[in-house]
Specification:
Radius of gyration: 22 Å
Pfam families: DUF7869
Number of strands: 12
Number of helices: 10
Structural class: alpha+beta
Distance between the termini: 52 Å
Protein name: DUF7869 domain-containing protein
Largest sheet: 10 strands, mixed
InterPro entries: DUF7869
Domain DUF7869: 142-294
């Protein structure tokens, strides 16, 4: 049996119940429950596959020009995005890894990907440890980090579509869902999209194309000596034609994107959705401002929820503050800098020592 660390707990529970059932009737009941779970997973998988198929079919007839395209300026309605985090990458990393380095804590670089399936393109955000919202890279995987990068991707690499479909992991455990919903509602209220369909992957069954992009990166990463962030950028660029790297600090020394306080911003206008963890499909429409249409499963009937607070009108959003406050990066603590300089620096090759593990600032 191949070892795995991302198995579905529900599947394992069903298997255990079937194998330990006391009688034939009990075994049949557990088998029926397991079958229903797998059928639900297959239906959700088909929703994803159909979204990718429709996006690619539509994009075949529309060549995307270079540069930023204004929102809702094309007739595209099937554009599909999938976003997720990969495991953090470490620098330095060597194909022939020195034994002691395995027990250390090298510099961490977070990898966030957005696959634009119709374009056969994946945008990979590389965030160094001193560039996160909090100290030592904290906050990158939180709501403000995720929504800030998603906003940059939709703004910079979108196709000017009127409607889109988005897939992502069910991130209720990190309490990000409510803020992602608020952000997508804000987009339809601001006229940045007419319609948005958000679908959550079934936990532990979410195999999607963004993972394929990550796999290409990891394969080359494991075969390559990487001693700096710039080296990691080259790994992403060379890993596949479809992979493009984006760093927080660009070649001109400017921020490629900003961290925004989306949590405070969306909390001002939108309410929390009760029972959000049980819902998997969410639809936003500019024809129903402030309304959210939800389904627990793909074949369920939609029900309407008012996401906009009763004290807020759509005009309050469109005529008020256009964007949230900018959050500056938290940098790196002196303690962490000293650790990298004292412990990790000896494993970094010249001439990258001063870039990856500089002397701590007092």
């Amino acid at each position: 049996m191949t070892p795995r660390s991302d198995i579905c707990p529900k599947c394992e529970n069903h298997r255990a119940n079937i194998s330990t059932a006391a009688g034939q009737q009990e075994k049949q009941e557990h088998l029926q429950a397991f079958t229903e779970h797998l059928l639900m997973v297959e239906k959700e998988r088909q929703v994803y596959n159909n979204a990718v198929k429709n996006a690619r079919k539509e994009t075949e007839l529309h060549h995307r020009p270079a540069g930023v395209i204004p929102p809702c300026s094309t007739d595209l309605k099937e554009v599909h995005y999938t976003f997720d985090f990969s495991q953090a990458l470490s620098i330095p990393h060597h194909a022939r890894q020195e034994g002691p380095l395995y027990f250390l804590t090298p510099r961490k670089v977070q990898l966030f990907g957005v696959a634009i399936e119709g374009q056969h393109h994946q945008i990979n955000y590389l965030i160094d440890e001193d560039q996160g919202i909090g100290e030592n890279g904290a906050g990158i995987k939180g709501a403000n980090g995720v929504v800030s990068m998603l906003h940059h991707c939709l703004t910079t690499y979108g196709s000017g579509e009127k409607s889109c479909v988005i897939h992502c992991d069910n991130c209720a455990g990190e309490n990000k869902n409510r803020y992602v919903l608020g952000y997508l509602m804000w987009r339809t209220l601001m006229g940045l999209h007419h319609d948005i369909q958000l679908s959550m992957q079934v936990p532990y069954h979410g195999r999607c194309l963004v993972d394929a992009g990550f796999a290409n990166i990891k394969q080359l990463y494991h075969r390559t000596d990487v001693d700096s962030l710039s080296g990691l950028v080259e790994v992403v660029r060379k890993s596949a034609r479809s992979n493009s790297p984006v760093t927080y600090i660009n070649d001109a020394g400017e921020h490629s994107w900003e961290w925004y306080d989306w949590k405070s911003f969306t909390s001002t206008f939108f309410t929390n959705v009760k029972g959000i963890r049980k819902m998997r499909h969410f639809r936003f429409s500019s024809l129903s401002p402030g309304k959210l249409f939800v389904k627990s499963h793909a074949d369920d009937s939609e029900r309407e929820i008012t996401l906009l607070k009763s004290s807020i009108s759509p005009e309050d959003i469109t005529t008020g503050s256009v964007m949230p406050d900018i959050l500056p990066p938290g940098g790196m603590t002196s303690e962490r800098q000293r650790y990298l300089f004292r412990v990790v620096r000896p494993f970094v090759r010249d001439p990258f020592k001063d870039t990856t593990c500089p002397e701590a600032e007092e």
